[in-house]
Amino acid sequence: MFRGRIALFICLLGMLLAAAGCAPSNEEEGAAKARTPQTIRVPRDARTIGIAVGRARPGDLVLVSPGVYHETVRIPADRIVLRGTDRNRVIIDGQGTRRNGVVVTGSGVAVENLTVRDHLLNGVLVTGMESQDGQGLARGSSGYERLDPEKSPPLQGFRVSYVTSARNGLYGIYAFNAHNGRLDHNHTSGGADSGLYVGQCKPCNVVVSDNVAEYNAVGYEGTNASEKMWVLRNRLTHNRVGMTVNSDYLEAFVPQHSAVVAGNLITDNAEPKTPQQADGGFGIGIGLAGSQRNTVRNNRIEGNPRAGLVLMSAEDVPPTGNTISSNTFSRNGVDAVHAASDRAPGKGNCLTDNALSTTAPKALAAQPQCSTDADGPVMTSATPPTQPAAPAGIPFRMVPEPPQQPQMPGGATAPVRPATGLPGPVDADRVPLPGRDLLAAHSRSGS
């Protein structure tokens, strides 16, 4: 009996010591947490971008060499950086058959310094919504559904920088149900809906800046994108419509409100050689539809043959409390129009300190109604000037190639920075009125 107990004790002691020897020490655990980020090179280390992304862990860089890659790249992991070594020669090509070029559903992901072209839906889609098969969902996707905050919390942190998006059949670069991010220094053309889109976020905490959007149906669209939402220093020219800021019941968070649009060049938006969409607004620079308490300041709005800026209703959502100040208007069919419906009349909108010559109604700029009071007096409305029917557009895949675009500073050797802590400091009050040459060197029109 006694010997049996000793044998049992020795056996148990051996098991405990063995287990202790297998357990990681605190140092080993710390080393695992402090894993050095890796660079995975395509095609040297992985033959496709998708394989490389599948191997990547948070903090890693997937670095892609020049080539044409026929794949959809899905990035579900957090804090991955996807970068091309050459913006103009690293091309993710949908061949007119794939739906999306890059789909980001992980938080803190950065996509930079490459080209996406010829996809049926989106060039780059950043979204907090996923289908059961892991595909990203957004407005326009198959199976789109309204946001359920419990089911699909917003993606937190994203950046799309120095990306060229050409000839994509819905949106060029699309952030949906995503907060805390930046879209900057991109070029979008041939978008059959819009080149740049931010939708369904509140508070967004998103900056859209220093981009060129041309030869799209719409240059920029912000639908139900509210609070801490900045659209700054972009060149929006030669689209069918320059930009829209709007409310839409097909997305959550109606009404849209409290965005800042400042320092943008919005000119010559009546381009027939674009995809045929948005023709109800053909020839308009800025459309504010059911938009509320927005600031539109220090923009150059010129050469839009129907109207420079139009305030209108969106179903039963009125335009209220918008401040239009210190903008320069010229060569527009009419500079500024208040066209709210009787169903949803506009209130509290004001135009102050603008350089403009024509408005509809004629006394629009003299209506001193700069107020967020939705119960204030109804503003007089007018109909935007009529134009001939919008010209037939062209298929999105027939839009010409964009010009060569500048590389991201540092290129392949730039520091690896996942998209965290964004968008960073924003001082929209200091954004100046742009010149007509804003980003002209990166534009196909060049003027």
From TrEMBL:
Signal peptide limits: 1-20
Classification via InterPro entries: NosD_dom, Para_beta_helix_rpt-2, PbH1, Pectin_lyas_fold, Pectin_lyase_fold/virulence, SCF-Subunits/Alg-Epimerases
All copies of domain Periplasmic copper-binding protein NosD beta helix, residue ranges: 168-339
Annotated Gene3D superfamilies: Single-stranded right-handed beta-helix, Pectin lyase-like (2.160.20.10)
One Pfam family of this chain: NosD
Disordered, as annotated region: 132-151, 363-447
Keywords associated with the record: Repeat, Signal, Ubl conjugation pathway
Biological pathway: Protein modification; protein ubiquitination
Name under which the protein is recorded: Nitrous oxide reductase family maturation protein NosD
Species of origin: Streptomyces pathocidini
